[in-house]
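sanity check this record:

:::
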Amino acid sequence: MEKVSANGVLSRLSFLEAQSKQKTGAQPQSRVQELKTKVEELKKQRDRLRAEIFVHQNLQKLRTSMDNNEQVEMNDDSENAKLLRVMAKHTQLKDLLLAHHLIGGYDVIKTNQDKCLCFSLATAYQGDILETYNIEISVSQPLRIIRHNIPPFIPVMTLAEETDMQKNIRRFLDTLSLHLNAFTMRKQQLKLVKEQHLSVEVLETNALCSLLVLMLTEPNTNTALLCSLDYSDHTRGLPTRVTIQCEERDLSGSPQWQKNTALLQNTPVHEALQIMRKTGQII
C-alpha cells in the first residue's frame, strides 16, 4: 500500500476546501441573476396589463358614447386616439352583427325605456319585399307579448307556447316568420291569378288563403272544371291537396289531368295555370 504523507493529506484538504468555496460562491451569484430576470419579466407583464386596461377603459367610454350618440373628447388627437376610435367602431359593429345573428336576422329596436324589444318581421315573395309585421315583447321574466299587428287568423299565442318562447325566442320568431311568409306567398299568388288569368273564376277563398276554389274551362268543349286547392300546411305556399272535378266525366283516370293535378300541387298556382293555358289544357 502506498504511504500517504501528512503534507499530502493537508494539501488535499486545502484543495477540497477551496473547491467547495467556489461552488458555494457561484450558486448565490446564479440565483441573483435568475431573480433579476424574473423581475424584468414581471415588469413587462405589468406594463402590458396597464396598457390593456387603458385601452379597455377608453374603448368602453367610446362605445358608450357611440351607443348614446354622444361626442367624447379624447385627450389627444394622436394616432393612438384615432386607432382607439376605429377599434371602438369595430367592436360596436361586431356586437351588432352578433345580436343580429342571434335573433335570426330580424330588425329589432328597444322600447319602453329598454324594457321591451320590438321585432320587425318582413315578408317577401319572388324577391319582392311585401308586408312587414311587428311584435313587441317584454324582456322581463317571464317574457310577454305586449302588442303586435299580425293578422288575427295567425295564432301568435299558440305558436309562442308550442315553440316555448320563454326558453328559445329565436325559435318562436322563426316559426312566426314562417307562417307570415307562407300566408304572404298564398295571398300574392291569389292576387296574381286574378291579374293574369281573367278567364279563371275564383269561386271561394278565405282570409288565411288556405283554401282556393277555381273554375277552369277546357278550350275545345267549353267544359267547366272545378279545381280545389287545400293549403292545410300553413307554413307552406304550396297546396297539400289538389282535386279537379268535372260534372260531365270522371277525370281521375286521365293521365293528362293527373299530370295537371301534380303540376298544381308542386308549382305556384298562377304559374301552373300559365303552363296549362300554353299547353291548351284550359282557356
